[in-house]
Amino acid sequence: MTKNAVLLLAHGSPENVADIPEYMKYVTGGRGLPESVVKEVQHRYGLIGISPLRCHTVGQQTGVQRETGVSTYIGMRNWHPFVADTIEQMKQDGIEHCVALCLAPQNSRTSVGLYRKALMEKNPPFTVDFVESWHDHPLLIQAFAENHRAGYEKARAEASHDLPRIFTAHSVPERTITEGDPYEAQTRETAALVAKGLGLKDAVWRFAFQSQGMSGGTWRGPTVESTLEGLAKEGHRGVFFQPIGFVCDHVEVLYDIDIGFRDFAEKLGMKIWRAESLNNSATFAQAIADIVRQRLAAQAVTV
Ligand SMILES: C=CC1=C(C)c2cc3[nH]c(cc4nc(cc5[nH]c(cc1n2)c(C)c5CCC(=O)O)C(CCC(=O)O)=C4C)c(C)c3C=C
Ligand SMILES: [Fe+2]
Ligand SMILES: [Fe+2]
């Protein structure tokens, strides 16, 4: 019988501020970034404390292994455990085939494309069934909707009135989209499916790109900032956020939304709330498990 595994590929993040300069070299493929950008990222990590990305990713690995009964590994592009080290471990464990899935449901060449490259350029000594995207999987949509509903109910009670909602995804350079990347269509589709699952009318929600890069160039909008300004002009005094491109908490949730957008909104006279990230959601682990089972069943038929 083939020795199968699941390989969860993820961004990766250091836990400590001191490791940020080295981490940024991995993020930019060795190019590095201006000192001012590195300092700003260090400042943001300092404000959130320890980044929980690795901890949540390990929790998700445990959830997928529990749901599938298949050995599950994690490999990061930009920090430990690096993809190369994980491949070595899988080799030692005698893995013959793996389903590789990125912890980024929507496909962009700036995320999934780079994770795939990090894996394939190491010539793994096992066959790889690579999942390109899973942005519309019903259980992923359900997991987002569950967290949205729970968070919105609390926010609605606190605000004592209905709130408009903003679904967000990480921005990418403008040319990534104009050159044909599927990312924008897929992020918008995830948002629309979650809104549909919640029974929301189109008028009560928006989609915006967050976390435009700090090193210049034109990045895809609409920005969250312009969307907040538009809502403030319409007379809204509160907003409910849900990031649908990230599957756990990290600096771009805990700083960009919880601190950056909170402060920006405050200046417009608005208060913000946010849905909890998927983190250890059981429905989320079941979504990945469902994809893994389908892929392994198809593999068994074709072998
Ligand atoms: C789909 C696109 C991207 C996702 C999803 C994404 C997630 C993600 N990013 C960080 C941390 C950083 N990313 C940085 C730069 C950067 N990010 C993307 C795209 C996505 N990131 C691009 C295209 C770039 C530019 C890279 C380059 O070569 O210049 C940085 C550097 C600072 C900055 O420019 O903002 C950091 C830090 C995390 C933690 C994360 C989710 C897990
Ligand atoms: Fe990024
Ligand atoms: Fe970013």
TrEMBL record:
InterPro entries: Ferrochelatase (IPR001015), Ferrochelatase_C (IPR033644), Ferrochelatase_N (IPR033659)
Subcellular location per the Swiss-Prot or TrEMBL entry: Cytoplasm
Primary residence: cytoplasm
The protein's name in its UniProt record: Ferrochelatase
Gene Ontology terms for molecular function: ferrochelatase activity; metal ion binding
Binding-site residues for Fe(2+), renumbered to this chain: H170, E252
Enzyme class: lyase
Gene that encodes it: hemH
One GO CC term, this protein: cytoplasm
Enzyme Commission code: 4.98.1.1
The reaction(s) this protein catalyses: Fe-coproporphyrin III + 2 H(+) = coproporphyrin III + Fe(2+); heme b + 2 H(+) = protoporphyrin IX + Fe(2+)
HAMAP family in the cross-refs: Ferrochelatase
Biological or metabolic pathway of the protein: Porphyrin-containing compound metabolism; protoheme biosynthesis; protoheme from protoporphyrin-IX: step 1/1
NCBIfam families documented for this protein: hemH (TIGR00109)
Family: Belongs to the ferrochelatase family.
Function: Catalyzes the ferrous insertion into protoporphyrin IX.
UniProt entry keywords in alphabetical sequence: Cytoplasm, Heme biosynthesis, Iron, Lyase, Metal-binding, Porphyrin biosynthesis
GO BP terms, alphabetized: heme biosynthetic process
Domain of life where this protein originates: Bacteria
